[in-house]
Design brief:
The structure is a single chain. By secondary structure, the protein is mainly beta. The protein folds into 2 domains: about 160 residues, Jelly Rolls (Sandwich); about 120 residues, Jelly Rolls, CATH 2.60.120.730. Helix content is about 10%, strand content about 45%. The protein has 3 helices and 19 strands. The strands form 4 sheets. Strands 1, 4, 7, 8, 9 and 11 form a 6-stranded antiparallel beta sheet that branches. The radius of gyration is 19 Å and the shape is globular.
Length: about 300
């Protein structure tokens, strides 16, 4: 049987769409998933505006098999999608706006196929296959919804048949938080606990919980200085040269640019690491970082 082209399917098995709840989207197994769109709304809104990702979504977890492969807040998901656009607008999109109160809807995209990369053929070879999953394995999206709203949530997926009964490397996202109590924050062992065969693709350092920005980053890997007090303004210029669209709210340390996925270092190659972040002012809160790694599903 010939392989079918990409197609859009509705994800109808959605449970527990309630304020401050964790909605579960059960995705059918068998296809190769290229993208998922979360269609969000707040039916209690006092206007018809399309909502922001943050106003409806607190956090997103993605489970493939029986492991968490992505864990990111709604705000961070939108910031990273925007930055990784490579000339395209990959941020949350309004699909219904300007109507009656509570009717506004937006689509929050979750990308699996890395279509923004410049390496020829990477999109066709990518995505998350699910045909190899066993009877007790799942492919689930867990969406933690904001409190104080009446949430609306539906979803769809873009899939194709690029499957062969085997798992393959995917891009995993993991969030971590560190306490801040000064104008700087020093991190060590930034890949601690990661699989040695994973490749480090990107680390996004978010603004602190009390609104302080990361203004410079100094990084040492294996005793070698790799970022010599790189200013956020200079980093944004570098990212824009690559086609990215960095927005306010994060400092994105991109290891691989938009080139080959093999450009990022292996975790096994990083014997030691030290990262010093300098803030726009003294911070007394927390800083989140989202690390992207290419590797086999956890």
């Amino acid at each position: 049987m010939a392989s079918l082209p990409w197609r859009k399917i509705a994800l109808r098995d959605i449970q527990n769409v309630v304020a401050a709840g964790v909605a579960i989207i059960n995705c059918p197994k068998g296809a190769n998933y290229k993208k998922i769109g979360l269609i969000i709304g707040n039916t209690a809104a006092g206007n018809g505006n399309a909502p922001t990702a943050t106003s409806v979504i607190a956090n997103v977890q993605i489970i493939l098999g029986n492991g968490i492969q992505r864990d990111v807040s709604g705000a961070d998901l939108d910031l990273i999608n925007t930055a990784m656009s490579n000339g395209r607008d990959q941020s949350t999109q309004a699909v219904v706006t300007g109507g009656a109160n509570g009717t506004g809807r937006s689509v929050v995209p979750i990308f699996f196929d890395e279509t923004f990369r410049e390496e020829p053929g990477i999109s066709a070879a990518f995505g998350w296959p699910t045909d190899y999953l066993g009877a007790n394995d799942v492919f689930q999206i867990k969406v933690t919804l904001q409190g104080g709203i009446t949430p609306a949530l539906s979803a769809y997926a873009i899939v194709d048949d690029n499957v062969n009964g085997k798992a393959r490397p995917i891009v995993k996202w993991y969030s971590q938080s560190s306490n801040t109590n000064d104008t700087t924050l020093e991190l060590s062992n930034i890949v601690q606990g990661a699989a040695p065969s994973d490749r480090l693709l990107q680390i996004s350092f978010m603004d602190t919980s009390d609104g302080k920005q990361v203004t410079t980053v100094r990084a040492i890997l294996n005793g070698q200085l790799v970022l010599d007090d790189l200013a956020s303004t200079e980093n944004n210029a570098l990212l824009k040269n690559l086609g990215a669209l960095p927005a306010a709210g994060a400092f994105h340390w991109m290891f691989d640019g938009f080139d080959s996925l093999n450009a990022g270092p292996l975790v096994s190659e990083i014997g030691s690491s030290s990262v010093k972040l300098t803030f726009s002012a003294a911070s007394a809160g927390t800083l989140r970082r989202v690390t992207q790694r290419l590797g086999m599903p956890a």
